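hey m, so remember when u said the tokens were messed up on ur end? i reran from scratch. heres the input so u can diff it against urs
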Amino acid sequence: MRGAPVYIPTPVLCTSSAVVRPSDKTKVVDMTENPNETTSSLSAEQMAAFQGIGFDGLVGLEYTEVTPDRVRATWTIRPELHQPAGITHGGVYCSVVESVASIAGMVWLQGRGHVVGVNNNTDFLRAVREGTLSAEALPIHRGRTQQLWEVRITDEKQRLIAKGQVRLANITDTADLGSK
């Protein structure tokens, strides 16, 4: 259908429940002119709009790159993120994996709806007590109804700390999403 606009969220937001909702500020792009067009990297101002929101803010996640094809973020491990043995709680890795994959999936979906995480499989490969970690989400599959993203978490020495895979459902009929 020629002339059908696609709403691209700018800025984007991620809630702690991994349901990603675009803000009211949108940019309209006619995808029929170039159906392979994707959004470019978000500006520093756009990324600042969702820094520190929800659970991401509690973890201290800072997004450093957000594009439809890759999302990168960093955070610093601190004692509040430890489990009783004094190492990083595995739930922190799972949350980061879900967050960066959800942001990536939402930006790729370009405002045509929401994404919802339906499966998160995260493997913990190396214990960490302190330091700054980085996460990078890359697409494995992006389709009409679902997406699959791989997320790798590394330390300052580029050692693999955790690796996750998140399946997202593309929800285009969002009127009843989250209702009772």
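this time it looks ok to me. The helical segments are 44-48, 54-59, 90-109. if urs says something different then somethings off w ur setup not the seq
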